[in-house]
Amino acid sequence: MSGLGDLLRLDPAQGGLAADLAVDSGVPGFGQPWHAEAFGTTLALSQAGVVSWAEWFEIFTGEIRARPQRPGETSEAAYYRQWLVALEAILVKHSTLAPEEIADAVEHWRRSYLNTPHGGPVVFSREWGDLPESEDDGHDHHRHDGRQHRSHAGGSRPIAVSPATVVKD
Amino acid sequence: MSSDSHTDPPSAPALRIKAIQQLLTEKGLLPTGAVDTIVDAFEHRFGPRTGARIVARAWTNASYRKRLLADAPEAMGEFGHSEDPHIAMIERTPTIVLENTLKVHNVIVCTLCSCYPWHVLGLPPNWYKAAPYRSRVVIEPRAVLAEFGLHVPDDVEVRVWDSNNELRYFVLPLRPAGTEGWSEERLASIVTRDSMIGTALCKAA
Description:
- The complex is a heterodimer.
- Chain A has helices at 4-10, 16-22, 33-47, 53-66, 75-93, 99-114, and one strand at 160-162.
- By secondary structure, chain A is mainly α.
- Chain A starts with a helix and ends in a 7-residue tail after the last strand.
- Chain A is elongated.
- In chain A, helix 4 crosses helix 5 (75-93).
- In chain B, 47% of the residues are buried.
């Protein structure tokens, strides 16, 4: 495909558009069950009025800019990594959830799995022993630079136009 | 490790979203069944077949086309809304329809993330969400379209539209020659997802 060399130079961490197009199956879906859960949870919280969609957009796009796709990471993996971090960030920002309680619930879920015989239904329980002292979970509570999407005030307009260079009637 | 006495925990992010859901449910903030309903709709209900039916009707029915261009959510709703409030809310997403003509070709993007007309196209392809497309289609739209195999003639203007959290765009592609007299159903069968993004044209198959 023409232009691939230029693309790779511009964007060494990824294969560029050509690589993204090469893996397009034509039927997009959720690559992992947890992708669907993270996506669905965010929409459900927005619909329930727990998070504002405008603020979600700001935090999610801030995360995309702050921590873009990494070498060796697929665009899909990067996207849902950014999505999950943003979801946690918006919930922590408004004290809907505390980082420590999330870390504890993660550990209780992990223990619930480990204490369920293989093949049995895994039920969340906090009864599988005390947790160690809560430590920093490594999630940095980064700030977002607050850059907004372009305003659409004054009507709907294209973001870019490549004019016709030849006029035919 | 593998043993009958335990179940291997899922990946770290999978555990994390389960923990978040658990806490939100305990606090009464996550309505029961809402996540499953929404995910199911994205896996089984929303998809480009809906958009294709809308395009085919706009091609065959001039008054529908006019309504679609004037008030897209209203005209798209003529195909019916889900009775489930979670789904109906998504189906009413504010949307503007951009009509391709012999002089203007429209293409959509979300430069900052992945805003997309889910209710009529389903989930976006990964390339739509990835940095190369998001950044380059604004800077060099004709070169990017050429990489999709779409060579827009020099006498056609290319307009790139940036979707956002408040407004989604949808491209009404040109009806291809050689489809005169076709039924709405047959026309819908040649309307592709990419033609409604603006990275492809419809062809009489």
